What we know:
The chain has 412 residues and is of the alpha/beta class. Among the domains are: 33 residues; 62 residues, no CATH class. It is built from seven helices and 18 strands. The structure holds calcium ion (CA) (2 copies). One calcium ion (CA) binds next to helix 5.
Amino acid sequence: MKINRIIAAVLSLCMVGGAFTFNSTAVRDYSITADAAGECYTFNSTTGVLTLRGNVVLEEITEFDRKEAVKSIKAAEGTVFSGRCYELFEGYSNCTSIDLKNADTSEVEYMGRMFYGCSSLTSLDISSFNISKVCDMSSMFEGCSSLTSLDISSFNTCEVYDTSRMFDGCSSLTSLDLSNFKTKEACNTSSMFYGCSSLTSLVLGDISAKDSASFMFYGCSSLTSLDLELFVTTDLVYNIDYMFAGCSSLTSLDLSMIGGDTIESANGLFSDCTSLSELTLGKDFGDIAVGHKLPNGKGWVNTNDPSTIISGSGEYAAFTNDGKNTYVQFAASLNKKGDINGDSVIDGTDATLALKEYASLGQGISTLTAAQTAAADVNGSGNVDGSDATMILRYYALAGGGVTPDWDHIFD
Length: 412
Ligand SMILES: [Ca+2]
Ligand SMILES: [Ca+2]
């Protein structure tokens, strides 16, 4: 169907020559609304709107020669995408808005690089996307660096096996909710969120990984927490290099679901995770090695034994992990002596907590964490009892009288 192109070409010639003599209503409308057209699109260069219609032919959109003039793209009602949408909108770098809520994507299998390099895009409506047949989402939104939000709640269960670089370089995206996203197949997740440096909230769906999860969260430097409960690495994952590298705001991480003998490489796994102060490892994870580049800080302790640093004195931590354990930074693990509830004040509340603990211990139950117990045992006797409570009250009384108390001079 080249006829539309021919009509458009004839029309533009007629208009230039001032010889506009067509009487057909359809053709006249055409001249007003579009100055380029293909089988599945019309383009209005005045408004910069590219309108898709009917069955979208991949090559017509990827080979459109005025991409830089397109400011927005919308799908008219009845628009149907074919199985291949690979690189469909790649290179529409001045386009700020894409509205595809009318597009039927139920037959689409390939969405790789679909919006690749749409670096001016601030609005993308794919809220009605059907992704049930999609197998490839690699680099789908890569380089959409102006996008601050993206509603992908319509992304549910699919056959996808490649999500590598899916959101790579979406550096303005502040939140992302993938809670409906479930992969039937295990997939390659390498660099999936690479460089999403503004992301403060990320809800992961039920994703299982194979092959590689390397660089998956690399440079997600605004992320303070990450729930990986539904994320699974299958026994086909062999590479998790730099998976969390550069997550410099992340304070805690539970990797219970990650591990296994098949992982051959985990270089730089925690590189530049400078805020990480709590780390839970599952029984399959194995030991922490220097090559994981876990910043040692003031040293790491197992919460089962919060007073013993186990991570060595090097720049990076190294310790043995046996079973499921939670490790914390030494400084974070110890409450100040006497300050059982950790509110930075030593007062009657702390004395009460010590007495309650003493009473509970009499019944064989402890109400305090290991760190709190260490803070409560102010006389260093190895247990918490009434003597500790008495000393805490004396400390409180002295401090209230304007004295800076010294534990060495407080006796029960
Ligand atoms: Ca206190
Ligand atoms: Ca004591």
